[in-house]
Amino acid sequence: MRSPRLVSRLCRLASTRTISTQSQIQPSRGWTPTPYVTETVGGGWHTYDIFSKLLKERIVCLNGEVDESVSASIVAQLLFLEADNPEKPIQLYINSPGGSVTAGLAVYDTMTYIQSPVATICVGQAASMGSLLLTGGEAGKRFCLPHSSIMVHQPSGGYFGQASDIAIHANEILRVRKQLNEIYRRHLTKPHSLEAIESMMERDRFLSAAEALELGIVDQILTNRSTGSKNGLPGGDDDNSGHEKPSPSA
Question: The whole model's pTM is what?
Answer without folding.
Answer: 0.77
